[in-house]
Write a structure and sequence with these properties.
Helix content is 23%, strand content 25%. By secondary structure, the chain is an alpha/beta fold. It folds into two domains: 209 residues, FAD/NAD(P)-binding domain; 115 residues, FAD/NAD(P)-binding domain (3-Layer(bba) Sandwich), CATH 3.50.50.60. The strands form five sheets. Strands 1, 2, 5, 6, 7, 8 and 19 form a seven-stranded mixed sheet that branches. A five-stranded parallel sheet has the order 10-17-11-12-13. Strand 1, helix 1 and strand 2 form a beta-alpha-beta unit. Helix 1 packs parallel to helix 2 and helix 1 runs parallel beside helix 7. The structure holds NADP nicotinamide-adenine-dinucleotide phosphate (NAP). The site of NADP nicotinamide-adenine-dinucleotide phosphate has 19 residues, from helix 5.
Length: 334
C-alpha cells in the first residue's frame, strides 16, 4: 500500500513527485511505457523554462526532472495505467503489465494528446506521411515538400524545426492571422523556406500508400484546390487525456478534469489532478510544474488529515471514519 501514486511523467507529474518524495511520501510514478517524459520529449529547445538562460532541450529537461524526483526517493515505473478504481478510500491503479498498485491518494497528471483534424485521409495515412511530431519524424522528409497545419506556437515551432530537413514548408492556417506568440511568428516569417497558406482548411489528405498532397478549402469563399506535398504535420493543439477517468471524475465544459478553485482537488476525495489535464488555457511546462507542486502539497494535507502524513502506510482501521476494504489498505498489490 502506497501513500501516493502519480500517473504521468511530464512536468506536472515529476514536479509532484519531487515534492512528494521530499515530503517522505515515497511516490510511485506511473510514467508510461512509450510516452515517459510527456510532450516535452517531442520538443526541441525549450527557451522559456526559468533557470536555463541558454535554453535546454525538452528531453534533457525531463531527464533532469526525473533524476531530481528519484534522488529523493520517487520510484518510476515504465508502464501504463489502463484502469482506475477510485471510488473508495483505497485508490487502485491497474497497469498494462497486469500488475496493480494501491494507494491512499492519487495524482492524475496525464497531460494532453495531439489533436486530430478528424478527416479520413488523416487517419488512413497516419505514419505514412501524416505525423504529429516533427522531432520524431522530421528526419524522413529530407529535401521534401511538406506542410504544417495550425497557427499556434506548436505549428511555428514545428515549421521552423522542419526547415532543417525539408526543401519547403507550407504553414496552412484557417485564418489570416496567427495565434502564435510574436517571437515564434517572427522567426517563422523570417525563414525563407516557410510559405504561409492563409484562410485554408485541410479537408482531405491525398495518397494511397503515402501522402501525395492535401485538398484545401478556402475559409472565405469556399473554393477548393489541391496542394502537392510529401508530408503533413498536424499541430493544431492538444486535448486533455481524460479517457481513464470518464464517468469517474467530473470534467469541465472544455473537457479538462474539474478541480476545486486553485487547488488540485477533483470531485473524488483523495484524487488530485495537475498539469495540462486540468488546464484549458496556459499549458506551459512551467505552469504544469507549478500545478504539480499544488497537487503534491494538497496530497500532503490530505494525508495529514488521514493522520498518516510522513509515516509508512497504515492499516485502515487506524483511520477514523474510513472503512477498511477487505484489508486491502495494508498491502501493496504489486
Ligand atoms: P493552440 O495555441 O491552441 O493553437 C492551435 C492552432 O491550431 C490555432 O491556430 C488554431 O486555429 C488551429 N486549429 C485548432 N483546431 C483546428 C482544426 N480543427 N483545424 C485547423 N486548425 C485548427 O495550440 P498549440 O500551438 O499546440 O499551443 C498550445 C500551448 O502550448 C499554447 O499555450 C502555446 O503557447 C504553448 N506552446 C508553447 C511553445 C513555446 O513557447 N516554445 C511551443 C509550443 C506550444 P485558431 O487560431 O483559428 O483557433
Amino acid at each position: 500500500m502506497r501513500q501516493v501514486i502519480i500517473i504521468g511523467s511530464g512536468p506536472a507529474g515529476y514536479t509532484a513527485a519531487i515534492y512528494a518524495a521530499r515530503a517522505n511520501l515515497a511516490p510511485l510514478v506511473v510514467a508510461s511505457s512509450v510516452e515517459a517524459g510527456g510532450e516535452l520529449m517531442n520538443t526541441t529547445e525549450v527557451e522559456n523554462f526559468p533557470g536555463f538562460p541558454e535554453g535546454i532541450m525538452g528531453p534533457d529537461l525531463m531527464t533532469k526532472m526525473q533524476e531530481q524526483a528519484e534522488r529523493f526517493g520517487a520510484e518510476v515505473l515504465y508502464d501504463d495505467a489502463v484502469e482506475l478504481d477510485i471510488d473508495g478510500p483505497v485508490k487502485r491503479v491497474i497497469l498494462g503489465s497486469g500488475k496493480s498498485y494501491e494507494a491512499d491518494s492519487l495524482v492524475f497528471a496525464t497531460g494532453s494528446a495531439p489533436r486530430k483534424i478528424g478527416i479520413d485521409g488523416e487517419t488512413r495515412l497516419s505514419g505514412r506521411g501524416v505525423s504529429y511530431c516533427a522531432t520524431c519524424d522530421g528526419f524522413f522528409f529530407r529535401e521534401k515538400v511538406i506542410a504544417v497545419v495550425g497557427g499556434g506556437d506548436s505549428a511555428m515551432e514545428e515549421a521552423t524545426f522542419l526547415t532543417k530537413f525539408a526543401s519547403k514548408v507550407y504553414v496552412i492556417h484557417r485564418r489570416d492571422e496567427l495565434r502564435a506568440s510574436k517571437i515564434m511568428q517572427e522567426r517563422a516569417f523570417k525563414n525563407d523556406k516557410i510559405e504561409f497558406v492563409w484562410n485554408s482548411e485541410v479537408v482531405d489528405v491525398l495518397g494511397t500508400d503515402a501522402v501525395t498532397g492535401v485538398t484545401l478549402e478556402d475559409t472565405v469563399d469556399g473554393t477548393r484546390r489541391d496542394l502537392a506535398l510529401d508530408g503533413v504535420f498536424v499541430a493544431i493543439g492538444n486535448d486533455p487525456r481524460t479517457h481513464l477517468v470518464h464517468g469517474k471524475l467530473d470534467l469541465t465544459p472544455e473537457g479538462t478534469v474539474w478541480v476545486d478553485g486553485r487547488s488540485s482537488r477533483t470531485s473524488v476525495p483523495g484524487v488530485f489532478a495537475a498539469g495540462d489535464v486540468i488546464d484549458p488555457t496556459y499549458r506551459q511546462a512551467v505552469t504544469a510544474a507549478g500545478s504539480g507542486t499544488v497537487a503534491a502539497l494538497d496530497v500532503e494535507h490530505f494525508l495529514a488529515a488521514l493522520g498518516e502524513a510522513g509515516a509508512p502506510a497504515v492499516d485502515a482501521s487506524e483511520i477514523d471514519g474510513l472503512p477498511e476494504v477487505d484489508g486491502r489498505r495494508a498491502v501493496d498489490a504489486a
